[in-house]
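Entry for the shared binder. Reason: the reviewer on the internal report wants the predicted structure included alongside the sequence.
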Amino acid sequence: MASHAPNSVENRPGVGIRAIGRHLPERVVTNAELAQRLPTTDRWIRERIGIEKRRFSAPDEWSSDLGAKALTDACRQLGLSVGEIDLVVCSTYTPDHMLPNTASAIMRKVGMSATPGFDVNSGGCPGAVFALDVGVKYVASGRYPRVAVVLTDVGTKLFDPEDRTVGVIFGDAAACYILEPTRPGTGVGEVLLRSDPAHYTSVYAAREARTDREGRPKKSAFGDNFITMRGSDIKEFVLGVVPEFMREFVQKAGLDLDDIDFFALHQANRNLVHGILDALGQPRHKTLTNIERVGNTSGASVPLVLREAVEQGRLRAGQLALLTAFGGGLNYGAALVRWCGAEDFVTHRA
Protein backbone atom coordinates (compact mmCIF):
# COMPACT_ATOMS: atom_id res chain seq x y z
CA MET A 1 0.00 0.00 0.00
CA ALA A 2 1.36 3.43 -0.95
CA SER A 3 2.42 5.73 1.88
CA HIS A 4 0.78 9.14 2.22
CA ALA A 5 3.35 10.58 4.61
CA PRO A 6 4.56 14.14 3.89
CA ASN A 7 7.81 12.81 2.39
CA SER A 8 6.11 10.21 0.18
CA VAL A 9 6.67 10.06 -3.56
CA GLU A 10 3.24 11.62 -4.17
CA ASN A 11 4.32 14.84 -2.41
CA ARG A 12 7.82 15.19 -3.82
CA PRO A 13 8.51 17.36 -6.87
CA GLY A 14 8.65 15.23 -9.99
CA VAL A 15 11.07 15.12 -12.91
CA GLY A 16 9.64 15.14 -16.40
CA ILE A 17 10.82 14.83 -19.99
CA ARG A 18 10.36 18.37 -21.34
CA ALA A 19 11.57 17.64 -24.87
CA ILE A 20 13.22 14.94 -26.95
CA GLY A 21 15.74 15.96 -29.58
CA ARG A 22 16.76 13.66 -32.40
CA HIS A 23 19.20 13.34 -35.25
CA LEU A 24 19.48 10.73 -37.99
CA PRO A 25 22.42 10.59 -40.42
CA GLU A 26 21.64 11.42 -44.05
CA ARG A 27 22.71 8.13 -45.63
CA VAL A 28 19.84 5.68 -46.08
CA VAL A 29 20.84 2.03 -46.53
CA THR A 30 18.22 -0.32 -47.94
CA ASN A 31 17.99 -4.08 -47.62
CA ALA A 32 18.69 -4.35 -51.33
CA GLU A 33 22.02 -2.58 -50.87
CA LEU A 34 23.03 -4.92 -48.05
CA ALA A 35 22.01 -7.96 -50.09
CA GLN A 36 24.63 -7.01 -52.67
CA ARG A 37 27.46 -7.71 -50.22
CA LEU A 38 26.00 -9.96 -47.52
CA PRO A 39 24.43 -13.45 -47.77
CA THR A 40 20.86 -12.22 -47.25
CA THR A 41 17.78 -10.96 -49.08
CA ASP A 42 15.33 -8.13 -48.66
CA ARG A 43 12.57 -10.65 -47.95
CA TRP A 44 14.59 -12.44 -45.25
CA ILE A 45 15.37 -9.18 -43.41
CA ARG A 46 11.76 -7.95 -43.60
CA GLU A 47 10.29 -11.25 -42.39
CA ARG A 48 12.85 -12.07 -39.67
CA ILE A 49 13.63 -8.61 -38.31
CA GLY A 50 11.10 -6.20 -39.78
CA ILE A 51 13.61 -3.70 -41.17
CA GLU A 52 13.30 -2.09 -44.60
CA LYS A 53 16.01 0.56 -44.32
CA ARG A 54 18.33 2.16 -41.79
CA ARG A 55 20.73 5.13 -41.47
CA PHE A 56 24.52 4.89 -41.56
CA SER A 57 26.77 7.66 -40.30
CA ALA A 58 29.26 9.19 -42.74
CA PRO A 59 32.94 8.18 -42.46
CA ASP A 60 33.79 11.42 -40.65
CA GLU A 61 30.64 11.44 -38.50
CA TRP A 62 30.97 10.15 -34.95
CA SER A 63 28.86 9.78 -31.82
CA SER A 64 29.56 13.34 -30.69
CA ASP A 65 28.45 14.73 -34.06
CA LEU A 66 25.08 12.99 -33.89
CA GLY A 67 24.72 13.78 -30.19
CA ALA A 68 25.50 17.47 -30.64
CA LYS A 69 22.76 17.76 -33.28
CA ALA A 70 20.22 15.93 -31.10
CA LEU A 71 21.03 18.21 -28.15
CA THR A 72 20.73 21.29 -30.37
CA ASP A 73 17.39 20.04 -31.68
CA ALA A 74 16.06 19.53 -28.15
CA CYS A 75 17.10 23.04 -27.09
CA ARG A 76 15.60 24.53 -30.23
CA GLN A 77 12.22 23.02 -29.40
CA LEU A 78 12.20 24.83 -26.06
CA GLY A 79 13.77 28.07 -27.23
CA LEU A 80 16.78 27.46 -24.99
CA SER A 81 20.42 28.32 -25.47
CA VAL A 82 22.81 25.47 -24.72
CA GLY A 83 24.17 27.60 -21.88
CA GLU A 84 20.91 27.06 -20.02
CA ILE A 85 21.65 23.34 -19.60
CA ASP A 86 23.02 22.54 -16.13
CA LEU A 87 24.45 19.05 -16.79
CA VAL A 88 25.02 16.77 -19.77
CA VAL A 89 24.92 12.99 -19.41
CA CYS A 90 25.93 11.06 -22.52
CA SER A 91 25.07 7.39 -22.98
CA THR A 92 27.15 5.66 -25.64
CA TYR A 93 29.03 2.46 -26.34
CA THR A 94 30.83 4.03 -29.31
CA PRO A 95 32.78 6.92 -27.76
CA ASP A 96 34.73 9.14 -30.13
CA HIS A 97 37.85 8.39 -28.09
CA MET A 98 38.67 6.27 -25.07
CA LEU A 99 39.60 9.54 -23.35
CA PRO A 100 38.09 12.06 -22.71
CA ASN A 101 34.36 11.45 -22.46
CA THR A 102 31.98 11.94 -25.38
CA ALA A 103 29.84 14.35 -23.34
CA SER A 104 32.78 16.75 -23.42
CA ALA A 105 33.10 16.37 -27.19
CA ILE A 106 29.38 17.12 -27.59
CA MET A 107 29.58 20.19 -25.35
CA ARG A 108 32.60 21.45 -27.23
CA LYS A 109 30.81 21.13 -30.57
CA VAL A 110 27.70 23.01 -29.39
CA GLY A 111 29.72 25.76 -27.70
CA MET A 112 29.08 24.99 -24.04
CA SER A 113 31.59 26.02 -21.39
CA ALA A 114 31.82 25.46 -17.63
CA THR A 115 28.93 22.96 -17.77
CA PRO A 116 29.71 19.55 -16.23
CA GLY A 117 29.27 16.43 -18.31
CA PHE A 118 30.13 12.75 -18.22
CA ASP A 119 29.40 9.45 -19.98
CA VAL A 120 27.37 6.42 -18.94
CA ASN A 121 27.93 3.03 -20.58
CA SER A 122 25.15 0.65 -19.58
CA GLY A 123 25.51 -1.63 -22.59
CA GLY A 124 24.24 0.58 -25.40
CA CYS A 125 20.52 -0.09 -25.84
CA PRO A 126 19.63 -0.10 -22.09
CA GLY A 127 20.88 3.48 -21.82
CA ALA A 128 17.42 4.71 -22.78
CA VAL A 129 16.35 3.80 -19.23
CA PHE A 130 19.64 3.55 -17.29
CA ALA A 131 20.96 6.98 -18.35
CA LEU A 132 17.48 8.47 -18.00
CA ASP A 133 17.44 7.30 -14.39
CA VAL A 134 20.84 8.91 -13.78
CA GLY A 135 19.62 12.21 -15.20
CA VAL A 136 16.39 12.09 -13.19
CA LYS A 137 18.32 11.68 -9.95
CA TYR A 138 20.48 14.72 -10.70
CA VAL A 139 17.43 16.88 -11.37
CA ALA A 140 15.72 15.54 -8.24
CA SER A 141 18.77 16.52 -6.18
CA GLY A 142 17.97 20.16 -6.82
CA ARG A 143 21.55 20.93 -7.85
CA TYR A 144 21.05 20.48 -11.59
CA PRO A 145 17.50 21.58 -12.48
CA ARG A 146 17.85 21.13 -16.23
CA VAL A 147 19.70 18.04 -17.44
CA ALA A 148 20.32 16.89 -21.01
CA VAL A 149 20.63 13.11 -21.42
CA VAL A 150 22.11 12.34 -24.82
CA LEU A 151 21.82 8.83 -26.29
CA THR A 152 24.12 8.48 -29.27
CA ASP A 153 25.76 5.53 -31.00
CA VAL A 154 27.43 4.81 -34.33
CA GLY A 155 27.24 1.04 -34.05
CA THR A 156 27.62 0.57 -37.80
CA LYS A 157 31.25 1.65 -37.41
CA LEU A 158 31.86 -1.52 -35.35
CA PHE A 159 30.69 -3.87 -38.11
CA ASP A 160 32.69 -6.77 -39.40
CA PRO A 161 32.00 -6.23 -43.12
CA GLU A 162 31.21 -9.95 -43.54
CA ASP A 163 28.97 -10.37 -40.49
CA ARG A 164 25.33 -10.58 -41.56
CA THR A 165 24.01 -10.92 -38.01
CA VAL A 166 24.80 -7.34 -36.98
CA GLY A 167 25.08 -5.92 -40.49
CA VAL A 168 21.36 -6.07 -41.19
CA ILE A 169 20.09 -4.89 -37.81
CA PHE A 170 21.77 -1.74 -36.56
CA GLY A 171 21.44 1.86 -37.65
CA ASP A 172 23.04 5.03 -36.32
CA ALA A 173 21.10 7.78 -34.53
CA ALA A 174 21.04 10.10 -31.54
CA ALA A 175 18.32 11.35 -29.22
CA CYS A 176 18.33 13.75 -26.29
CA TYR A 177 16.01 13.96 -23.30
CA ILE A 178 15.73 17.38 -21.65
CA LEU A 179 14.72 16.78 -18.02
CA GLU A 180 13.21 19.42 -15.73
CA PRO A 181 11.35 19.54 -12.39
CA THR A 182 7.59 19.00 -12.46
CA ARG A 183 4.76 19.15 -9.98
CA PRO A 184 4.34 16.11 -7.69
CA GLY A 185 2.75 13.03 -9.21
CA THR A 186 3.93 13.73 -12.74
CA GLY A 187 6.94 12.77 -14.82
CA VAL A 188 9.26 9.82 -14.32
CA GLY A 189 8.01 7.57 -11.52
CA GLU A 190 9.16 4.09 -10.57
CA VAL A 191 12.30 2.75 -12.27
CA LEU A 192 13.68 -0.78 -12.06
CA LEU A 193 17.14 -1.76 -13.33
CA ARG A 194 18.57 -5.27 -13.56
CA SER A 195 21.60 -7.07 -14.96
CA ASP A 196 22.18 -10.67 -15.98
CA PRO A 197 25.97 -10.89 -16.40
CA ALA A 198 25.78 -14.64 -17.11
CA HIS A 199 24.84 -13.52 -20.64
CA TYR A 200 27.72 -11.05 -20.92
CA THR A 201 28.75 -12.31 -24.35
CA SER A 202 25.27 -12.32 -25.91
CA VAL A 203 26.10 -8.94 -27.44
CA TYR A 204 29.47 -7.27 -27.00
CA ALA A 205 32.23 -5.34 -28.73
CA ALA A 206 35.73 -6.69 -28.29
CA ARG A 207 39.27 -6.10 -29.51
CA GLU A 208 40.22 -9.02 -31.70
CA ALA A 209 42.22 -9.45 -34.87
CA ARG A 210 40.06 -10.82 -37.70
CA THR A 211 40.85 -11.90 -41.23
CA ASP A 212 38.65 -12.43 -44.27
CA ARG A 213 38.27 -15.68 -46.19
CA GLU A 214 41.54 -15.02 -48.00
CA GLY A 215 43.47 -14.30 -44.81
CA ARG A 216 43.62 -10.53 -45.22
CA PRO A 217 43.17 -8.40 -42.08
CA LYS A 218 39.72 -6.96 -41.55
CA LYS A 219 39.16 -3.63 -39.84
CA SER A 220 36.17 -1.73 -38.56
CA ALA A 221 36.13 2.05 -38.24
CA PHE A 222 37.38 1.36 -34.70
CA GLY A 223 40.29 -0.75 -35.92
CA ASP A 224 40.37 -4.23 -34.38
CA ASN A 225 37.15 -3.62 -32.45
CA PHE A 226 34.06 -5.47 -33.69
CA ILE A 227 30.54 -5.94 -32.41
CA THR A 228 29.30 -9.51 -31.98
CA MET A 229 25.76 -10.62 -31.29
CA ARG A 230 24.23 -14.03 -30.66
CA GLY A 231 20.76 -13.53 -32.03
CA SER A 232 19.27 -16.69 -30.56
CA ASP A 233 20.43 -15.68 -27.05
CA ILE A 234 18.81 -12.26 -27.40
CA LYS A 235 15.56 -13.69 -28.74
CA GLU A 236 15.35 -16.23 -25.91
CA PHE A 237 16.03 -13.54 -23.32
CA VAL A 238 13.61 -11.00 -24.75
CA LEU A 239 10.68 -13.36 -25.07
CA GLY A 240 11.50 -15.44 -22.00
CA VAL A 241 12.47 -12.76 -19.47
CA VAL A 242 11.33 -9.30 -20.55
CA PRO A 243 7.52 -9.77 -20.52
CA GLU A 244 7.52 -11.25 -17.01
CA PHE A 245 9.92 -8.52 -15.85
CA MET A 246 7.52 -5.87 -17.15
CA ARG A 247 4.52 -7.59 -15.58
CA GLU A 248 6.28 -7.83 -12.21
CA PHE A 249 7.40 -4.20 -12.38
CA VAL A 250 3.92 -2.88 -13.12
CA GLN A 251 2.36 -5.00 -10.37
CA LYS A 252 4.91 -3.82 -7.80
CA ALA A 253 4.00 -0.26 -8.74
CA GLY A 254 0.40 -1.06 -7.78
CA LEU A 255 -0.86 -1.00 -11.36
CA ASP A 256 -2.30 -3.35 -13.96
CA LEU A 257 -0.95 -3.66 -17.47
CA ASP A 258 -4.27 -2.28 -18.70
CA ASP A 259 -3.40 0.97 -16.88
CA ILE A 260 -0.53 1.57 -19.31
CA ASP A 261 -1.53 3.84 -22.18
CA PHE A 262 1.64 3.44 -24.24
CA PHE A 263 4.50 0.93 -24.30
CA ALA A 264 7.79 2.44 -25.50
CA LEU A 265 9.90 -0.63 -26.26
CA HIS A 266 13.47 -0.93 -27.46
CA GLN A 267 13.44 -1.58 -31.19
CA ALA A 268 15.63 -4.67 -31.24
CA ASN A 269 13.48 -6.46 -33.79
CA ARG A 270 9.89 -5.70 -34.89
CA ASN A 271 8.81 -9.29 -34.30
CA LEU A 272 10.21 -9.16 -30.76
CA VAL A 273 8.38 -5.89 -30.03
CA HIS A 274 5.12 -7.48 -31.12
CA GLY A 275 6.01 -10.69 -29.27
CA ILE A 276 6.40 -8.79 -25.99
CA LEU A 277 2.99 -7.14 -26.35
CA ASP A 278 1.39 -10.46 -27.29
CA ALA A 279 2.95 -12.18 -24.26
CA LEU A 280 1.56 -9.43 -22.02
CA GLY A 281 -1.89 -9.77 -23.55
CA GLN A 282 -1.80 -6.13 -24.64
CA PRO A 283 -2.98 -4.84 -28.02
CA ARG A 284 -0.30 -3.86 -30.49
CA HIS A 285 -1.92 -0.46 -31.05
CA LYS A 286 -0.58 0.55 -27.61
CA THR A 287 2.91 0.80 -29.07
CA LEU A 288 4.54 1.83 -32.32
CA THR A 289 7.63 0.69 -34.19
CA ASN A 290 10.17 2.65 -36.17
CA ILE A 291 12.72 -0.11 -36.68
CA GLU A 292 11.41 -0.68 -40.20
CA ARG A 293 12.59 2.85 -41.15
CA VAL A 294 15.69 3.44 -38.99
CA GLY A 295 16.87 0.02 -37.80
CA ASN A 296 17.93 -0.82 -34.27
CA THR A 297 19.28 2.53 -33.07
CA SER A 298 20.60 1.25 -29.72
CA GLY A 299 20.25 3.78 -26.89
CA ALA A 300 18.33 6.27 -29.05
CA SER A 301 15.66 3.70 -29.85
CA VAL A 302 13.19 4.32 -26.99
CA PRO A 303 13.35 8.14 -26.98
CA LEU A 304 12.87 8.17 -30.76
CA VAL A 305 9.74 6.05 -30.31
CA LEU A 306 8.50 8.41 -27.59
CA ARG A 307 8.99 11.46 -29.79
CA GLU A 308 7.07 9.86 -32.65
CA ALA A 309 4.28 8.84 -30.26
CA VAL A 310 3.92 12.44 -29.06
CA GLU A 311 4.02 13.82 -32.60
CA GLN A 312 1.33 11.38 -33.72
CA GLY A 313 -0.90 12.06 -30.72
CA ARG A 314 -0.40 8.53 -29.45
CA LEU A 315 0.99 9.80 -26.12
CA ARG A 316 -0.59 12.81 -24.47
CA ALA A 317 -0.23 14.73 -21.22
CA GLY A 318 -1.60 12.77 -18.27
CA GLN A 319 -1.19 9.39 -19.94
CA LEU A 320 1.04 6.66 -18.54
CA ALA A 321 3.94 5.30 -20.57
CA LEU A 322 6.07 2.26 -19.78
CA LEU A 323 9.61 2.52 -21.14
CA THR A 324 11.51 -0.76 -21.46
CA ALA A 325 15.04 -1.19 -22.79
CA PHE A 326 17.46 -4.12 -22.88
CA GLY A 327 20.81 -5.03 -24.38
CA GLY A 328 24.47 -5.51 -23.58
CA GLY A 329 25.30 -6.80 -20.15
CA LEU A 330 22.69 -8.22 -20.36
CA ASN A 331 21.22 -5.11 -18.77
CA TYR A 332 17.53 -4.32 -18.80
CA GLY A 333 15.35 -1.70 -17.22
CA ALA A 334 11.88 -0.20 -17.12
CA ALA A 335 10.50 3.20 -16.17
CA LEU A 336 6.97 4.45 -15.63
CA VAL A 337 6.37 7.97 -16.91
CA ARG A 338 3.26 10.05 -16.35
CA TRP A 339 3.59 12.16 -19.49
CA CYS A 340 3.72 15.88 -18.81
CA GLY A 341 2.16 18.89 -20.46
CA ALA A 342 3.78 22.33 -20.40
CA GLU A 343 1.72 23.28 -17.35
CA ASP A 344 3.26 20.44 -15.31
CA PHE A 345 6.79 21.86 -15.37
CA VAL A 346 8.02 24.02 -12.52
CA THR A 347 9.76 27.28 -13.39
CA HIS A 348 13.19 27.15 -11.82
CA ARG A 349 14.81 30.36 -13.05
CA ALA A 350 14.02 33.98 -12.38
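Summary line for the report: Confidence is low (pLDDT under 50) at residues 1-9.
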